[in-house]
């Protein structure tokens, strides 16, 4: 049950409609700063692991460890998100993430860093993410309300990918100049912005959703609820497939930069940044004109697969960078369409559990996909790893099309 404690301010329309809401502006600003640091750390960590181990399989395992808690406890974390004050939970968990980034920075700058230490810290970060993701996803709805949720979700994706355009490029320069440690320092500092933005929010303008009382069987209840609605379970199945095999760019792209295009960390940074720029452009278009539903999700999954396939076949680094621009565009379109479709079709008291399953499908699939794509890349090369991801998009689109035709 939702009971607003105070009406939200008058809402505007257009690409940046959600930014008319004071609390969303705070959230957006804090997240924008932090996510640049997050992408800097992701880029630096991937290159550091590849440098220390020389193995794409080990890189895949590290990426998998970070997502493993989401796969194992993600659905239960959604139950917690429906029971507690989501803003307070986010403040606590974001603070812990900053501490973990600081520990990684100290170990790296001190010259003590080893792969097993990165693995442990990645696992702990994944544990935080398992609880923070569903709370954050559901909290956006409390800030902006029903009418702006699609716009807010899309702008959130734009923000993530704008950070992906900036963070990896900066990380590539810093990696070449001063090493990975300073990337981790910047990320640790960036979490201050998130915590401050959450603390500074006007609580009277946050839509109050009465916490679900603790009871037995709430996880099973959520699973039954999703299973009963094709508009919920089909996007989750599609994202699980695409998330497992297509979104493993942290594994395939650094290997492609090094082995296929004979580049270094700067080449990897530019490739990742190109995806980010494309995602920003595509996200702004989706924010202004985008629609939700299975039909749109099917179209974007198909386009996503085509662009990844073109990247896999690119004969040069610069052509790959151009192709990755469109990969980013279709990536954010697919992601934001699926996310908004779930949010708009979920009951408020179920939204935390539904969005936890979305996190499991998107990031929790990495413990399977990361090592798998890492092994494929190790044996058959980065082009093959990317091609497998493209194929998964086509299969997901086919599944969605079959259900859509039967149920429309």
UniProtKB/TrEMBL annotation:
* PROSITE patterns attached to this UniProt entry: MFS
Query: What membrane topology is annotated for this entry?
Result: Multi-pass membrane protein
Q: Which organism is it from?
A: Gordonia jacobaea
Which residues span the membrane?
Answer: 58-81, 88-109, 115-131, 152-178, 184-201, 230-247, 267-287, 294-312, 318-342, 354-380, 386-404
Descriptive protein name: MFS transporter
List keywords of the entry alphabetically.
Answer: Cell membrane, Membrane, Transmembrane, Transmembrane helix, Transport
Coiled-coil blocks: none
Q: Which domain of life is it from?
A: Bacteria
Q: Where in the cell is it found?
A: Cell membrane
> Where in the numbering of this chain does the Major facilitator superfamily (MFS) profile domain appear?
18-408
Main location, first listed in the record: membrane
């Amino acid at each position: 049950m939702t009971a607003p404690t105070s009406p939200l301010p008058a809402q505007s329309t257009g690409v940046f409609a959600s930014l008319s809401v004071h609390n969303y502006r705070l959230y957006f600003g804090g997240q924008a700063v932090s996510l640049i640091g997050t992408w800097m750390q992701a880029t630096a960590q991937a290159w550091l692991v590849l440098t220390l181990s020389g193995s794409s399989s080990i890189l895949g395992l590290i990426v998998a460890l970070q997502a493993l808690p989401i796969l194992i406890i993600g659905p239960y974390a959604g139950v917690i998100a429906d029971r507690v004050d989501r803003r307070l939970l986010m403040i606590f968990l974001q603070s812990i993430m900053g501490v973990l980034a600081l520990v990684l920075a100290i170990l790296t700058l001190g010259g003590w860093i080893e792969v097993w230490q990165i693995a442990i810290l990645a696992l702990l970060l994944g544990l935080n993410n398992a609880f923070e993701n569903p709370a954050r996803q559901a909290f956006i709805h409390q800030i902006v309300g029903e009418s702006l949720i699609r716009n807010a979700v899309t702008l959130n994706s734009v923000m993530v990918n704008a950070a992906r355009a900036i963070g990896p490029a900066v990380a590539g320069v810093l990696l070449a100049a001063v090493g990975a440690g300073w990337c981790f320092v910047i990320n640790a500092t960036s979490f201050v912005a998130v915590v401050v933005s959450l603390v500074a929010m006007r609580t009277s303008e946050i839509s109050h959703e009465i916490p679900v009382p603790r009871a037995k069987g709430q996880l099973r209840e959520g699973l039954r609820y999703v299973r009963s609605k094709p508009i919920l379970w089909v996007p989750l199945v599609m994202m699980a497939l695409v998330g497992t095999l297509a979104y493993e760019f942290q594994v395939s792209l650094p290997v492609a930069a090094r082995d296929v295009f004979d580049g270094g960390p700067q080449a990897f940074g530019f490739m990742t940044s190109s995806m980010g720029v494309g995602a920003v452009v595509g996200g702004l278009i989706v924010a202004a004109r985008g629609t939700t539903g299975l039909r749109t999700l099917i179209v974007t999954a198909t386009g996503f697969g085509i662009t990844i396939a073109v990247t896999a076949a690119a004969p040069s680094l610069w052509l790959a960078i151009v192709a990755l621009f469109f990969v980013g565009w279709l990536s954010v379109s697919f992601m934001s369409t699926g996310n908004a479709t779930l949010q708009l079709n979920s009951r408020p008291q179920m939204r935390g559990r539904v969005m936890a399953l979305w996190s499991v499908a998107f990031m929790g699939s990495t413990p399977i996909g990361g090592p798998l794509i890492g092994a494929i890349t190790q044996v058959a090369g980065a082009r093959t790893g990317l091609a497998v991801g493209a194929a998964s998009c086509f299969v997901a689109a086919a599944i969605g099309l079959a259900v859509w035709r039967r149920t429309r």
